[in-house]
Amino acid sequence: MTDSAPAGPGRIVLLTTSHRVAPGLLSWPAWQLLRTADRVYARDGGHPLLPYLKEAGVTVAGAAPGGAGLLEECAGGRTVVVLAGADGEGRLTDELAALAGSGRHTMPALELLPGAYDLPGARLLDLVQVMDRIRGECPWSSTRGHRDLAKHGLEEMYELVEAIEAGDRTELREELGDVLLQVVFHARIAQEDAEEPFDVDDVAGGLVAKLVHRHPHIFGDEHAETPEDVRKLWLRTKAEEKRRESVTEGIPLSQPGLALAAKLAGRARTAGLAAELPAPTGPEDFGARLLALAAEAEAAGVDPETALRTTARAYRDTIRAAETPTS
């Protein structure tokens, strides 16, 4: 801090920080400003940065005065830093704007300096905090269990698929959020298990380890030039992880029939197994015929479930057209 200051109207710097970043992790320009400013004020007496400023030898003068008071502090060319509160500085900036608009004051320079930037994915921290509060306070959410939410997870996945196939990006973003909600909700419920608790960090940590292990061509010494090479590596590393005795293990049998048939056929084909398809035994053996069609589609790189839904939608339009009276 200095007692003498250059002439001029001075400047007011609003220093913003993010609650998603540890308060001591400020940018170098922010620390330089804090150590050379003539006055440092905090709009919030409980600002999380205060203990770190004290440790660094930066004196905080206390609660910031209003707009007129800050103009007086800047007189003589002083630099005044205001640590912005969690809800921003709308009231302060409004006061300063009113003073500037009056034409009766020589205004200092007004600057905004972000002291900390959110990393990609930082809003996930907000999601975890909101979910934690909802779980603790909401009469409905606080009593739900994994089984209670199972059907909702299935519904949200179908709605996500619908948004993807419709090409609706607004719906896609919303449905991705709904699916993410299911993940965070289940992870929050799992924290309370008395015998085997885990939380969203355990879920994310396990996923990171899995992705790294199953991409040895990126994080290891393996090589993969084509998507098929990657698929083979994925299946091999997955089999090593699970130590499965059959390629059919891990296939959920409760999924839609066509998807199940294609998955089984794909596993057999990738493994090079000569597993013959069941032969139709009569004109009413539709299952065998559908299985054969699903296997044929999978081998051709077509998802039969998606193909059937696309055709079914077109058929729906045909039905609607037939329902419309012709003039």
Automatic annotation (TrEMBL):
<dbReference type="GO" id="GO:0006203">
    <property type="term" value="P:dGTP catabolic process"/>
</dbReference>
<dbReference type="GO" id="GO:0046076">
    <property type="term" value="P:dTTP catabolic process"/>
</dbReference>
<dbReference type="GO" id="GO:0046047">
    <property type="term" value="P:TTP catabolic process"/>
</dbReference>
<dbReference type="InterPro" id="IPR004518">
    <property type="entry name" value="MazG-like_dom"/>
</dbReference>
<dbReference type="GO" id="GO:0046081">
    <property type="term" value="P:dUTP catabolic process"/>
</dbReference>
<dbReference type="GO" id="GO:0046052">
    <property type="term" value="P:UTP catabolic process"/>
</dbReference>
<dbReference type="InterPro" id="IPR048015">
    <property type="entry name" value="NTP-PPase_MazG-like_N"/>
</dbReference>
<dbReference type="InterPro" id="IPR011551">
    <property type="entry name" value="NTP_PyrPHydrolase_MazG"/>
</dbReference>
<feature type="domain" description="NTP pyrophosphohydrolase MazG-like">
    <location>
        <begin position="146"/>
        <end position="219"/>
    </location>
</feature>
<protein>
    <submittedName>
        <fullName>Nucleoside triphosphate pyrophosphohydrolase</fullName>
    </submittedName>
</protein>
<dbReference type="GO" id="GO:0046061">
    <property type="term" value="P:dATP catabolic process"/>
</dbReference>
<dbReference type="GO" id="GO:0047429">
    <property type="term" value="F:nucleoside triphosphate diphosphatase activity"/>
</dbReference>
<dbReference type="GO" id="GO:0006950">
    <property type="term" value="P:response to stress"/>
</dbReference>
<dbReference type="Pfam" id="PF03819">
    <property type="entry name" value="MazG"/>
</dbReference>
